[in-house]
Amino acid sequence: MAYKSILTILTEPKEVAPVLDAAVAFAEASQAHLEVLCLGIDRTQTGYYFAGATALMHEETILQAQSEAQAIEAEARQFLARSAISWGIEGMVAQSASIAGLVARRARFADLVILPKPYGKDQYADAPVIAESAMFHGNVPVVILAEEAALTATPARVVIAWNESPEAMTAVRHAMPLLKAATEVDICIIAPERHSPDVADPGAELSRMLARHGVKVSVSILAQTLPRVSEMIARHVADTDADLLVMGAYGHSRFREAILGGATRNMLEHAEVPVVMAH
Q: Using CA atoms, how far apart are residues 190 and 42, in angstroms rounded to an integer?
């Protein structure tokens, strides 16, 4: 399946240029339609103000969120007007508590969602919620951008973080257009005895499946020599000079509807190349 409907969500003016630069180029190369959702977020929690102040302060924060949404949309429209792709744009205001449902509904009808890195300096708590909602509840693959590397629809080298899990398999299936376009695809398996101790040739079945799609594939089996699996993956991505990482997204439901698991979060925090994730 090709990516023909791409969604990106902007919540900060500083995200407009870098995110749209990547999304527009990817949509153009994929001959896809790009939908842009510009969100102004009211991050207040009503009910925590002194008596009589809630209504006034809530109105002020709503107006501020509206102003932010309009500013993001105006800048995005200027950017998109210079492109030759098919695109649509909408500005909306939402409270923090309603973002998850809103994003899930929009993401459900996209083939791919492109988002900025959800963790980092000066990032609001809403950024991880947007990524999580698209993956866990929108059931759509998400590309998390990296500041250090550009996103391309025709990557030269791709690393698949493979551990036999349903999440990893889902990510591989969703990333198939990129894997087929790549010059080299490396299946990276770390400590295979943890995942499938009864399998004599780890990665062989996935390798055969990908080869039938015309993917040029190799397998790297690595012992875990660093404390975290995410550190091993990041080092392998750097060692192979990869342009893209494909991996499953893992989470649990303890404090929110979806919280990215430790390995997923660590990977996103430190990723130096774009990451395709799915759950």
A: 42
| Residue whose C-alpha is closest to residue 277's, from 185, 177, 169, 142 | 142
How do residues 77-87 score in pLDDT, each as one tens digit?
Answer: 999 999 999 99
**DSSP string over 248-268:** E--EE-SSSS-EE-HHHHHHH
Q: Quick one: which of 187, 217, 223, 214 has its CA closest to 203?
A: 187
Number of residues that this document lists for the chain: 279
pTM for the model stands at 0.91
Alpha-carbon Rg for the chain, nearest whole angstrom, is 20
Number of other residues whose CB lies within 10 A of the CB of residue 137: 18
Q: Give tens-digit pLDDT for 92-132.
A: 999 888 999 999 999 999 999 999 999 877 777 789 899 99
pLDDT in tens, 15-46: 999 999 999 999 999 999 999 999 999 877 54
Contacts 24+ apart (CB under 8 A), 94-98: 94/39, 94/40, 94/41, 94/42, 94/65, 95/41, 95/42, 95/43, 95/44, 96/41, 96/42, 96/43, 96/45, 96/125, 96/126, 96/129
Residue 33 CB-half CA count within 13 A: 8
